[in-house]
């Protein structure tokens, strides 16, 4: 585990002042010298911190005048601090059968031409990842250690890779042994194994709302019902609402498991504060509730330090922690993992009966990359790029989308969650944009209860080229066309009528 | 599709004469010259055919006297032609809940030291496969086409590989389009997807008996019940017995699907004759019965030509054909496939919700190897090695196992199925052998109904070293120790007592 550089910590704490509205859009920032004195850091650290905030689109330098909080943030502020407006007005729902598969498959796996600009997909661009370094390692393993991957193997996965995961788990607030992990075919398999370990067809599984549509697809394919728990776009899952359900208030059904993303939830980018995680872990232990924690975005935080895994507060093994390298290191190799806690043996068996084992070659390459690095450096660069992209994407949205559009303030990751003003319809927007070869993810994908009709998810996990800006601006324009036209001021012709 | 060399066809037809007892153990073979004249082939073709039969352990040359059918075959004959004795005496069972997982996991996935000699595992040895050629291709793809595998992809798999499968399907008696395939993480995932596409918890699935324990594990993990259909060790599934079940005679339950291995079934090595496949396909269509066909051993036939897939007789898409490269080309890369017929779309969706997609890099390497070969040559060599190994392994068994041991006559593949004489107990044998670092697969693994207690499976898909012979001979010795000791003839001391 490597401590964040000082300037990042400094930038993050200043960012907090901006986020919370303590320093307002348009206001002048304190001078670099003053920062240096008040925070007891060198001037160059202060400069680096301001440059980082500038790169993130939060502040701007004005010649001869110093740094200012960007005025455009005002529009963002409204959405970021007016969190309620972004929260779908949902109480814990009744359990609903899930029926998102057909829509998702139509949207995401339809044969897509390379001409389609995929704004909605949360697939990060390969240009953000150290592909060349990993490929070099792959080549070396193939030449030097073919006996290590050619043979048929069953079992939970490469010991080398599991040891590296054990070491990395310190960053998650844990210290897991290598034998606590099972390597999977991406996190999707990990989530499937976890759900199957604790729930059977007809059972009710609690999920956040809005939530990753993959969660909903898993529930649908296994014949499970979804119970939506409200989720704040900043602080994530409403633990109180979950507690009421677990205490079976107002005829709430028995919940077989909770499937959630406490760190940088998809699509909102919310991260649960430590106290909420602690409370959730206590609740799980009290009610013997299996919790499936998807932590695939945890390393992509924009704050000062990595948010801990919910599992860090779990003393009794109720939390099954799932992760993947897909979003942080290698989109193509499809290697994920699960540390199943008290369900580990059951998961190991289900992995065997589902796909025997995971291809070894990619595991060996990732293990070597983690050993030889520079993984931490890569992650820092990636986070910086994503933070900058987030600010740029928001700026494009503010300039081009209808007035009243709300934008999430993600705490990391690479997606924004928007809510369009009435009477916009995101599914319609999807259709007209798709006709122009631009693909977005409409909000209805993210709720089994059929909510989120005015929401959409926009990804920024690629290089933000002029073509990106053009495509996103065009979506904004198409959204504006859904707004009622204000009648032009009457003149000339109207006289006498 | 490449025709078999003439000498292979010739050897195969002669083999049939031996197998059927037309030429008996100990009998002299007709001379090479006579074969050449009667079959209108060159003398060198006749020589090659006899050498192949010799390599397979069926005939032997005696100096100055010509070729003879090996006497040791007499013992094998008894088992091979006395097929009934090898058939578990089972009528179609009542549906039974499956409970093999814990035993399988104990046997097959327990931490095993490299010192353990794995006689029971059907994992082929890497020395039988063109690992070097595939690794060269892997290296080339990594250097030259990184953009083809680095990116995150969803969807049914590499078009290149699916096109190659389409071409190969001619060998299976089919002509499948590339879009009919979904690439999976080995055939285990393919089988899971197929079962999940047509059956839900509580349903009854018909399986052969004895059957591959992986089938039983899938059923157990999905909460399905198994209905055992008798299976002849030569001709496979008893279609008449299945028909009686489908016609709901004697209160037979509704069957949601049939899971079977028509070509070179595991563990018996049985292959269904064409007529039986045709009848089964008609039956499936009549009763709208989804059939999951596992064809992973089809290319490893010992006969003159590849047995066709059951799917070749399926005109209405009821047969989901599953296969893999694990047993024929690359044990380590874990690439399988499924051609789901009328269930294709459902399977495509289940693949997506289970693991999104299969790692692309191994797919590209296999596709290139199939294009550039020499795949057919490799398969011929592999089949020849396996046929020779089968004969050698049988000879070791005949020399070392208790009198009365029955041995299967596999039609291909790399396992033998034994039935020990009473009162042997294969599970006990497993335990004592395991204590000596030799691992076998006891028969109880292969039946959910708890049958096959005197059976075991022995694999020969590795290089048959002296260590192999020693291990297998030792298992025979341990089995002999399970037999009641015949009291030595009374002499001396017994007088007067």
Number of beta-strand segments of chain A: 17
Report helical residue fraction of chain A: 40-55%
Characterize the largest beta sheet of chain A: strand count, sense, and whether it forms a barrel. 9 strands, mixed
Largest inter-chain contact set: A-B, 59 and 59 residues
**For this entry, what is the oligomeric state of its chains?**
homodimer
Kindly report how far apart the N and C termini of chain A lie: 76 Å
Structural class of chain A: alpha/beta
Strand content of chain A: 5-15%
Average residue pLDDT of chain A = 88
Write down the overall geometry of chain A. globular
DSSP helical segment count of chain A: 17
| Rg result of chain A | 23 Å
Low-confidence stretches of chain A: 75-85, 491-497
Features:
homodimer; 497 residues; alpha/beta; 9-stranded mixed β-sheet; 4-stranded antiparallel β-sheet; 17 strands; globular; disordered C terminus
How would you portray this structure in words?
The structure is a homodimer of 497-residue chains. The first copy, chain A, has 497 residues and is α/β, with parallel strands linked by helices. Helix content of chain A is 40%, strand content 13%. Chain A contains 17 helices and 17 strands. The first copy, chain A, has helices at residues 6-19, 32-39, 43-55, 73-81, 83-86, 101-108, 131-144, 159-168, 186-198, 213-221, 239-246, 274-287, 344-355, 360-372, 375-400, 426-435, 466-480; strands at 59-62, 66-69, 96-97, 117-118, 181-184, 204-209, 225-232, 236-237, 257-260, 291-294, 319-324, 336-339, 406-407, 415-419, 438-439, 441-442, 455-459. In chain A, strands 3, 5, 6, 7, 8, 9, 10, 11 and 12 form a nine-stranded mixed sheet that branches. The longest helix of chain A is centred in the last third of the chain and has 26 residues, at 375-400. The interface between A and B is large, with 59 and 59 residues.
């Amino acid at each position: 585990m490597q401590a964040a550089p000082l300037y990042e910590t400094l930038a993050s704490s200043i960012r907090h002042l901006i986020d919370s509205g303590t320093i307002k859009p348009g206001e002048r920032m304190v001078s670099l010298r003053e920062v240096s004195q008040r925070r007891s850091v060198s001037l160059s650290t202060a400069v680096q911190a301001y440059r980082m905030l500038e790169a993130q689109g939060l502040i701007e330098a004005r010649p001869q005048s110093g740094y200012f909080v960007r005025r455009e943030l005002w529009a963002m502020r409204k959405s970021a601090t007016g969190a309620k407006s972004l929260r779908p007005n949902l109480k814990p729902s009744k359990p609903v059968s899930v029926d998102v598969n057909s829509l998702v498959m139509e949207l995401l796996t339809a044969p897509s031409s390379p001409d389609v600009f995929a704004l909605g997909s949360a697939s990060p661009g390969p240009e953000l990842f150290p592909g060349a370094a990993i490929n070099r390692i792959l080549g070396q393993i193939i030449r030097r250690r073919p006996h290590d991957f050619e043979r048929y193997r069953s079992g939970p996965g490469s010991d080398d890779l599991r040891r590296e995961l054990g070491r990395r788990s310190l960053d998650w607030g844990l210290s897991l042994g290598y034998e606590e992990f099972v390597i999977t075919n991406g996190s999707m398999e990990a989530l499937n194994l976890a759900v199957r370990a604790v729930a059977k067809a007809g059972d009710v599984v609690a999920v956040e709302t809005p939530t990753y549509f993959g969660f909903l697809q898993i529930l649908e394919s296994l014949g499970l019902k979804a119970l939506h728990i409200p989720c704040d776009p900043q602080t994530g899952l409403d633990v109180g609402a979950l507690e009421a359900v677990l205490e079976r208030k107002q005829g709430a059904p028995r919940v077989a498991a909770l499937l959630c993303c406490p760190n940088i939830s998809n699509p909102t980018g919310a991260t649960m504060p430590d106290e909420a995680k602690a409370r959730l872990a206590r609740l799980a232990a009290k009610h013997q509730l299996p919790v499936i924690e998807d932590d695939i975005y945890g390393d992509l935080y924009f704050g000062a330090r990595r948010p801990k895994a919910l599992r860090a507060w779990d003393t009794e093994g109720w939390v099954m922690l799932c992760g993947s390298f897909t979003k942080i290191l290698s989109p193509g190799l499809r290697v994920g993992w699960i540390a199943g806690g008290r369900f580990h043996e059951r998961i190991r068996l289900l992995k065997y009966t589902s796909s025997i084992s995971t291809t070894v070659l990619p595991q060996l390459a990732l293990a070597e990359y983690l050993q030889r690095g520079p993984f931490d450096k890569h992650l820092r660069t990636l986070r910086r790029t994503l933070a900058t992209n987030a600010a740029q994407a928001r700026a494009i949205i503010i300039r081009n989308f209808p007035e009243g559009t709300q934008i999430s303030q993600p705490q990391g990751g690479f997606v924004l969650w928007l809510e369009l003003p009435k009477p916009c319809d995101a599914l319609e927007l999807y259709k007209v944009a798709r006709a122009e070869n631009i693909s977005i993810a409409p909000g209805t994908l993210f709720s089994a209860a059929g909510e989120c009709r005015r929401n959409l998810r926009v990804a920024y996990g690629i290089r933000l080229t002029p073509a990106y800006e053009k495509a996103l601006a065009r979506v904004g324009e198409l959204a504006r066309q859904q707004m009622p036209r204000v009648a032009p001021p009457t003149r000339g012709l109207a006289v006498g009528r």
